[in-house]
Amino acid sequence: MTAQQLKNSILQMAVQGKLVPQDPNDEPASILLERIRAEKEQLIKEKKIKKEKNPSVIFRGADNLPYEKVGKNDPVCIVDEVPFDIPESWEWVRLTTLGEIVGGGTPKTNIPEYWDKGNIPWLTPADMKFVTGKYVDKGERCITGEGLKGSSAHMMPAGTIVYSSRAPIGYIAIASTELCTNQGFKSLVPVLTCIDDYVYYCLIAFTPEIQSRASGTTFKEISGAEFGKTLIPLPPLAEQQRIVKRIEDVLPALKMYDIKETALRKMNDDFPDKLRKSILQWAVQGKLVPQDPTDEPASILLEHIREEKQKLIREGKIKKDKHESVIFRRDNSHYEKLDGILRCIDDELPFEIPESWCWCKIRNIFTLQAGKNIQAAEIHENPFPGSYPCYGGNGIRGYVAIANRSGDYPIIGRQGALCGNINRGTGEFYATEHAVCVEIYSNVSVTWACLFLTALNLNQYATATAQPGLAVANINEVFIPLPPLNEQHRIVQKIKELLPLIKGL
């Protein structure tokens, strides 16, 4: 059960009279209701609130069923409308019985006198997003007295329960000071402020039911008349106070529960990705599968790669490296010879690798080549007959009518927020200038290459600009551990076995 579900359950118990015990010594809600009606009549006489056209009176009939008399109409049984049973000392009432439903308004924004140097708090539903507690005292903007008079906004006293009636329905708070709202509210001004805390929690509990009665096409809205029809279970005042205290006693624990639940949910959500990254790290460190002493060492594979690249250079199919790097192990340390200069690179290597493996730079075992530019108008969102996938900086960008690559390649995205991401292009496809195709040599596993390039987290080498990017020259200089060819295949097989299990978590 989530923290929100637990809170909803507590509120539901509260409004059903199941959260705190009833006390037979409590003054029944019927007496409180008489006080409310008397106070309301007095406010009407003083012309402080308007008289209801058709006031509601709900009572128990001789058959112990709830009946409602609206205005001068005959009483009607409302048992089908009452959602649950309540204790004997409680009463069902319409929201309008408890006070006056007040709307709001927005002064014309093109009249400076309505806004400039205004000191009257004015709320919008957007302001309610930032209300974290039970009370609200202001919004982002204030209006002037002229703005109040020149609009349908109404000044409401402290203790008013402000309730957003659209976009969305159900933001709720108690006004801690005098304020007004825009038209996105239907607020309750209770005739007795002693009930506002209970009604506040009650309306939270009944918000799903209120939302179900909303209407509208562009967005749902609850009208003032419909909001006023909301049935409220009214407990004795003393029990209301016990209910509110019990709710507010448990709210800190619910908040802590929510924090822990959120952290746990995030941990669970993150766990598969973290586990996947851990598996890749074990793989690149030579810890995922056992080494086989009969494997041909990676140094031999590296020689085969060099020979194949030299042949392609002689044939003019690839360009010769301007700065050829040779990495070797001596005296249990690693050295790089670059442009005739020998240096120890132990401090640059992130971890130890098995004896049969060797360190090299990406340029030593692959050839990187960026694709070519293509006009955005030529790229279609969906495939079409004869189309080819088009790879950009963040993976497949769309589909185009031509291809500029054919084969099986790891693809490094080198531009955009996801630069450094690794995709795999197979068959015929188009690579844009923001996609770098990785040429594989000497039967090196393409799948292994994709996995190890992913594990290298190439994004860390991106330029720190508004539009992050990876230079091919920088990618070429990244160190990569090279396992024997047979071990590559064992690593790939093991990861293929593990990844479906991770996805199922």
Molecular structure report:
The chain is an alpha+beta fold and 505 residues long. The chain has 2 domains: 3-255, Adenine-n6-DNA-methyltransferase TaqI, Chain A, domain 2 (Alpha-Beta Complex); 298-503, DNA methylase specificity domains (Adenine-n6-DNA-methyltransferase TaqI, Chain A, domain 2, Alpha-Beta Complex), CATH 3.90.220.20. Helix content is 33%, strand content 23%. It has helices at 3-15, 29-45, 95-98, 125-128, 145-149, 196-212, 224-228, 237-284, 298-314, 362-365, 446-455, 472-476, 485-503, and strands spanning 56-60, 66-70, 76-77, 91-94, 99-102, 120-123, 135-136, 141-143, 161-165, 169-175, 180-181, 187-190, 231-234, 325-330, 333-338, 341-344, 358-361, 367-370, 388-392, 395-400, 405-413, 422-431, 435-439, 479-482. The protein has a 6-stranded mixed β-sheet. It is elongated. The mean pLDDT is 93.
